[in-house]
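Incident log, support desk, overnight shift.

02:14 A customer reports that sequence design results differ from what the structure should imply. Their input is reproduced verbatim below. On-call engineer (initials T.W.) acknowledged and began investigating.
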């Protein structure tokens, strides 16, 4: 009887371990949650030029180059999508406070490009 209890306990333990193992094998639950939340809009859909409302696409590129005012920064020449990194150049780690619009060519504060929920 004592032996039977023990083996039953052991069986339960294995069942618990198996469930844990399965969970670690299938982290898709969390991934699904993430993609479900982002399904209604692409990552760039809430970003637009504060001045002309132009919406950058994922394929658009900004250059970390020499910029006059207001940033006054001599960049490293890297081309990347500045909204992938919230304005940080992946080449020299410079945090660009100002982001030029590729359509109207005016500078706006990087933060102003992110559309607020109240709009
Ligand atoms: Zn740079
Ligand atoms: Zn613009």
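02:41 Re-run completed on a clean worker. Output:
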């Amino acid at each position: 009887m004592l032996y039977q209890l023990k083996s039953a306990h052991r069986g339960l333990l294995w069942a618990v371990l198996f469930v844990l193992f399965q969970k670690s094998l299938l982290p898709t639950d969390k991934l699904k949650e993430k993609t479900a939340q982002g399904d209604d809009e692409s990552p760039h859909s809430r970003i637009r030029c504060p001045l002309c409302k132009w919406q950058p696409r994922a394929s658009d590129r900004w250059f970390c180059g020499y910029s006059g005012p207001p940033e006054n920064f001599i960049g490293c020449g890297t081309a990347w999508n500045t909204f992938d990194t919230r304005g940080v150049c992946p080449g020299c780690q410079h945090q660009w406070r100002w982001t030029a619009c590729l359509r109207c060519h005016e500078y706006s504060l990087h933060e102003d490009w992110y559309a607020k929920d109240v709009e």
